[in-house]
Amino acid sequence: MEFNFMKPGIWDGLVLATIFVGLALAILRLYADWMLHQHRQTQGDTQAPVSLGDSEQAPNLIENVEPFDPDQIQGE
After folding, report:
1. 70: which DSSP letter?
2. Would you state the torsion angle of the CA atoms of residues 32, 35, 37, 42, taken in this order, to the nearest 10 degrees?
3. SS3 for 44?
4. Cα 19 to Cα 25: distance, rounded to the nearest angstrom
5. 3-class state of residue 75 by DSSP
6. Model's pTM, two decimal places?
7. For residue 4, what is the DSSP state?
8. pLDDT tens digits for 13-62?
């Protein structure tokens, strides 16, 4: 596949368009985070995100897993 159409002007345009889209997305993200912060301040929601306390434990997801035994592997 030949890229004869990729002249320096087109390449520069693609790079600038990529930078512009990235900056636009970053600005939108910052604006959304700022608005969420403003909303929380006006609503009086100053609590930290909920996390597990000392009395609560995360469930043990591997309690019934048997240990690995390399002798059980069948060779070819």
Report:
1. G
2. -160
3. coil
4. 10
5. coil
6. 0.49
7. T
8. 999 999 999 999 999 999 999 988 888 888 875 555 555 555 566 666 66
Q: Residue 44: left (phi > 0), alpha (psi -120 to 50), or beta?
A: left
Q: Answer whether 52's CB lies under 8 Å from 58's CB.
A: yes
Tokens of 18: 């990529």
List phi, psi (to 5°) of 56.
-105, 140
Outline where the chain has alpha helix (H): 8-43
* Residue 71 pLDDT: 77
- Per the structure block, which two tokens stand in for 56? 């609560």
Q: Given the structure tokens 């069948």, which residue do they identify?
A: 74
Give dist(CA 25, CA 28) in Å, integer: 5
